[in-house]
């Protein structure tokens, strides 16, 4: 993209959006929800315990290729946790097939994600991250199913799935 086109595109953005460019304070998932105590561990310390792909997504803000995560096809009952610190982020009851090739959810577990403004693609988006380790998870869009209309589009490599244990397995045999 040449400089003139970039400057013309920026001129079309509302002034308030331009003033927000740069650091945007993290916000809790919703007012009044419980907070999670952040870990005091630098991102580089996670490199030893994560795959290179997970590290790039979680702590360098990369995005995995669409359709590359087996978690997009995960339909069992359970919990999706942060791949770095294992904080529960999404309940499987809120997962749905968005057709995007990434695991998508209608809502997170309250108070377990933070949000910030992301300008990597020029126009503002809402990026969300794990409230405990700060690892980048994905982006929030307003094109999800009713009633909330939210699509929490997550990088599969930034998650791990923990199946819910059957409380009465002996009765099922």
Automatic annotation (TrEMBL):
<dbReference type="GO" id="GO:0033743">
    <property type="term" value="F:peptide-methionine (R)-S-oxide reductase activity"/>
</dbReference>
<dbReference type="Pfam" id="PF01641">
    <property type="entry name" value="SelR"/>
</dbReference>
<dbReference type="InterPro" id="IPR002579">
    <property type="entry name" value="Met_Sox_Rdtase_MsrB_dom"/>
</dbReference>
<keyword id="KW-0732">Signal</keyword>
<feature type="domain" description="MsrB">
    <location>
        <begin position="43"/>
        <end position="164"/>
    </location>
</feature>
<feature type="signal peptide">
    <location>
        <begin position="1"/>
        <end position="28"/>
    </location>
</feature>
<keyword id="KW-0560">Oxidoreductase</keyword>
<protein>
    <submittedName>
        <fullName>Peptide-methionine (R)-S-oxide reductase MsrB</fullName>
        <ecNumber>1.8.4.12</ecNumber>
    </submittedName>
</protein>
<dbReference type="InterPro" id="IPR028427">
    <property type="entry name" value="Met_Sox_Rdtase_MsrB"/>
</dbReference>
